[in-house]
Amino acid sequence: MTELFSGLTASATVLVALAVLVGAWIQSVAGLGMGLVAAPVVAVVAPELMPELPLFFGLMVSTSVLVLDRRHVDWRAVGWTLPARALGTVPGVWLVVVFTNAQIGIAVATMVLVAVLVSWRTITVPVNPATMVAAGFIGGVGGTATSIAGPAVALLFQHGRPSEVRATLAVFFAGGVLMSLGALAVVGHFSTASIGLAVLCAPLVGLGLWLGHHTRDHLPRERFRRVVLLVCAASAVALLLKSL
To answer: Would you state the torsion angle of the CA atoms of residues 100, 102, 108, 114, taken in this order, to the nearest 10 degrees?
Structure first.
């Protein structure tokens, strides 16, 4: 089959591009989603680009969201969660170094399924310094090892104003991704091919954000959330079956 970019087949490249578009759209609406959508797809079609490629996608979408919603950031929450994410980056990098591609795939699938189960039940967690530090640390481990950092922090702020949740998560994601990519580069786990493919997909990030901006106020929020969770669960199950 013809290779289109960085060793990927045309069909694999199209799947990654579609995941980026959908992930950016969902994150623009809900505050997170790029990692949940893109990471399982990348882990299936291009495991050698994990976790760097989804991290680059996450950086692009989170910085874009932050530019649009920067006035609504809860800086107190950022002050607790982001330093804790920095601490979680260390064990996250260790997992990337010692895990095989198949083990990373299992970890990604497990993270997505746990996130879906927790989000489906809409558990209420008290927002205080202890829970914010715990969520930030978990995000640092998961975000670095699997590129999925959002579920624990999103769970804390799920009942906040949508604009505030989107902006606060954007700061957490953008800062955390820079930490994760920097740490991965230090240990030599950094694919330059990921940069090229991320740049190639950048226009799709912009299109997804544009779609999200123009549809977020017209979507039935609860039905949209459930459909997104089902899609993420299906992709996680496919990844899990491939990795076992």
So the answer is: -120
Q: How far is CA 133 from CA 72, 108, 165, 196, in A?
A: 21, 22, 17, 34
Which residues are within 8 A (CB) of 229 and not within 5 positions of it... i.e. 6 or more apart?
116, 119, 120
Give 148-182 pLDDT, tens digit per residue.
887 788 778 877 787 888 889 889 999 999 999 99
Could you tell me where the beta strands, DSSP code E, fall in 124-235? none
Residue 193's alpha-carbon distances to 38, 68, 197, in angstroms, are: 16, 29, 6
- Residue 198 CA to residue 178 CA, distance in Å, equals 15
| Strand, helix or coil for residue 4 | strand
Say how many residues make up the chain: 244
Cα dist. 115→14, 46, 103, 232, 236 in Å? 26, 22, 18, 9, 11
**Residue 24, both tokens:** 């950016």
Question: Could you report the per-residue pLDDT of 104-121, keeping only the tens digit for each?
Answer: 888 888 888 887 787 777
